[in-house]
Amino acid sequence: MQLFGTDGIRGKVNAFPITGEIALRLGKAVSYVLSHKNSNSKHKIAIGKDTRLSGYMLETALTSGIVSMGCNVLLIGPMPTPGIAYLTKSLGADAGIVLSASHNPAHDNGIKIFDSNGLKLNQDIEKEIEELVLGKELEKMQIPPDKIGKAFRVDDAKQRYKDFLIGQLKNKSLKGLKVVMDCANGAAYKIGPSLLLGLGAEVIAIKNEPDGFNINQECGAIAPQKMAAAVKEHNADIGIALDGDADRIIVSDEKGNLLEGEHLLALFALDMKEKGLLNKNRVVTTPHSNLGFTEAMKENGIDIVIAPVGDRYVLEEMRKRNASLGGEQCGHMMFSSHKHGEDALLTGLRLMELILEKGKKLSELASIIKIYPQKLVNVLVREKKPIEELPSVQERIKEAEKALGKEGRVFVRYSGTEKIARVMVEGREEKQVTQLAESIADAFRKEVGVGEDTTAS
């Protein structure tokens, strides 16, 4: 599809498809497909956003398109993506729209759409909406002036979402914990710290002063090192770094050691198994998960189901396999008890609750899993040419797989939302892992690379 990718619509602001014109037409199309199409009664669509300046432009255009089709708009304002998913259902909206490009820089933005249950749209509905946006049928869908909708601001949206999150906890208190929270200058910059303070935690909030341009800028889940340093500086018990729309989380233990998705997934899996809450002793993850995680799960009699990379695919597999827990290395955690997908604030709360319940330091809890050295290299590409059609890349991959044998692995794919090739190599020896990853990345650069790329270990 031309508009929708693996996570809604995303791109550079004021360039196709992230323009005011497309947003207006999208508002019309969403109204028609998800509500107006099947009834003459008044419907409503919720809109929330992160802190990007471009959110104002897109919000206004979407609102204009929606009300022009006879639907009302519920304006939520800055709110984590999972919060908008929850509010879409709890407010009885026909759909929810999130304006966010997640972990991308401020010059990007995105549009995610939820159905009335707060779930991401299936691809058939996305295709129907896209055909309307890019076609000529919308011009024929006019309604009388007295039937247009209105826009309303939901003033208690943050409190509603906080009440929901608190309701997910057994013990409604985090008293005794000192927490560093890196808000990534994003959607959770207000609700995150106030949520923890309300539960009695001592909170050191950083990167919570958005200016419209500094979202994800050397902070948050994509750059959690400052958060980890702040944990040591303030002698905190835990640090959490959110991404721009607060659906993923990276954690630091009290020593400043960073814990990524597989650490958290292992902690939750073992705890849930112990309590009889891990359905069929099964957990869903992706090919990115560390081999150390795989070993820890096997040692504890927990089966692993591998889903394609992407939160929607993990959720689909969880529903298909009736699994109660799933997650990704990047920090997306999904609990079946929370129907709206990954939620960084909920994950953080449950982890803090676990620390208090066990009465142990996070570093001690996390020692159950030994992480293999892993190197991830992101290469900017001019085109996403099929990897099997890149001879030198294929040759380097085979060389790496031969060198690693059964004690490592190679995983190569294109990003679903950006023109980036992701090269991941994992093994027992850090030096070897780094050399092999860079070798494959160099082959990508020579065949389809462009400009500077970024590397993350």
Topology of helices and strands:
Layout: E1 4-5, E2 8-12, H1 20-34, E3 43-49, H2 54-68, E4 71-78, H3 81-90, E5 95-99, E6 108-114, H4 123-134, E7 151-153, H5 157-167, E8 178-182, H6 191-198, E9 202-206, H7 225-233, E10 238-242, E11 249-252, E12 258-259, H8 261-274, E13 282-285, H9 291-299, E14 303-306, H10 311-321, E15 325-327, E16 333-335, H11 344-358, H12 362-366, E17 374-380, H13 391-404, E18 408-414, E19 420-427, H14 430-448, E20 454-456
Parallel strand pairs: 3-4, 3-5, 4-7, 8-9, 8-10, 13-14
Antiparallel strand pairs: 1-2, 2-6, 5-6, 10-11, 11-12, 15-16, 17-19, 17-20, 18-19
Short summary:
With 457 residues, the protein is α/β, with parallel strands linked by helices. Helices cover 37% and strands 21% of the residues.
Structural summary, described in words:
By secondary structure, this protein is of the alpha/beta class. It has 4 domains: 4-158, Alpha-D-Glucose-1,6-Bisphosphate, subunit A, domain 3 (Alpha-D-Glucose-1,6-Bisphosphate, Chain A, domain 3, 3-Layer(aba) Sandwich); 178-257, Alpha-D-Glucose-1,6-Bisphosphate, Chain A, domain 3; 260-366, Alpha-D-Glucose-1,6-Bisphosphate, Chain A, domain 3, CATH 3.40.120.10; 374-456, 2-Layer Sandwich (TATA-Binding Protein), CATH 3.30.310. The chain is 37% helix and 21% strand. It is built from 14 helices and 20 strands. The protein has helices at 20-34, 54-68, 81-90, 123-134, 157-167, 191-198, 225-233, 261-274, 291-299, 311-321, 344-358, 362-366, 391-404, 430-448, and strands spanning 4-5, 8-12, 43-49, 71-78, 95-99, 108-114, 151-153, 178-182, 202-206, 238-242, 249-252, 258-259, 282-285, 303-306, 325-327, 333-335, 374-380, 408-414, 420-427, 454-456. The strands form 5 sheets. Strands 1-2-6-5-3-4-7 form a 7-stranded mixed sheet, with helices on both faces. Strand 1 and strand 2 form a beta hairpin. Helix 1 crosses helix 2 and helix 13 runs antiparallel to helix 14. The radius of gyration is 22 Å and the shape is globular. The mean pLDDT is 92.
